[in-house]
Amino acid sequence: MNCKFCCDEWGVGMEIGGDVKREEVEAVIQELMDGEKGKKLKEKGGKWQRLAKEATEYPSGSSNVSFETLVNKVL
Length: 75
Hints:
This protein is mainly alpha-helical. The chain has one domain. The protein contains four helices and no strands. It is elongated and about 55 Å long. The two termini are 35 Å apart. Keywords: Glycosyltransferase, Transferase.
């Protein structure tokens, strides 16, 4: 489930097979460090980082608004 979200939904991960071999790990790391897919993953990661910052940094951010709503309902 986590791999599906990271790899397919959010676009910030790379899948590796269940029976992991050294060569496969090396190939995935090489692609992450130097390949086109690695560049795309870094761009996507930066996008998610900005969205998370916007949601939490400002009082009007969605996370802060949701938290305030929860607190008001509980109290």
